[in-house]
C-alpha cells in the first residue's frame, strides 16, 4: 500500500476516533441501544465532537476517491503521498480546533484541507505539468 492509501485509512480512523472518544469518556451516559439520542449530545464538547465526526464522514468519500483517482491515472506518487499526508495533518488540526471551539481557525483549516483534496483530485489533469 502507498502512503496516501494509509492516509485514507487514517482519515477513516480519525472520524471514528472523534466520536468514539467522547462515547468512551462519557460511557456511563451513553446508551448503545439509542446511539443517536439527542440527550447524550447536549453537552457542548459532545456537540462539537459530533459535528467534527459528521464533517469527517462528509469529507472522507471525496478524499478517498481523489487519492484512488490520482493513483489509477498514474500521477506522481510522491506528490500524491505528500498532499495526502498534509491533508491528514490538516484534518487532525481541524478536529482539534472543532473540539476547542475555534470556529475561524476551523474554517481556515477546512478550506486548506479542501484545497489539498482538490489538488489531489485534479492531479491527473495536471500531471504533464508536474515534476516526476
Automatic annotation (TrEMBL):
- Coiled-coil annotation: which residues? none
A cellular component term, taken from the record's GO annotations: membrane
From the Swiss-Prot or TrEMBL record, state where the protein is found.
Membrane
Q: Which InterPro entries match?
A: MAPEG-like_dom_sf (IPR023352), Membr-assoc_MAPEG (IPR001129)
Give UniProt keywords alphabetically. Answer: Membrane, Transmembrane, Transmembrane helix
Q: Where are the transmembrane segments?
A: 6-25, 83-101, 107-126
Name assigned to this protein? MAPEG family protein
Originating organism = Bradyrhizobium cytisi
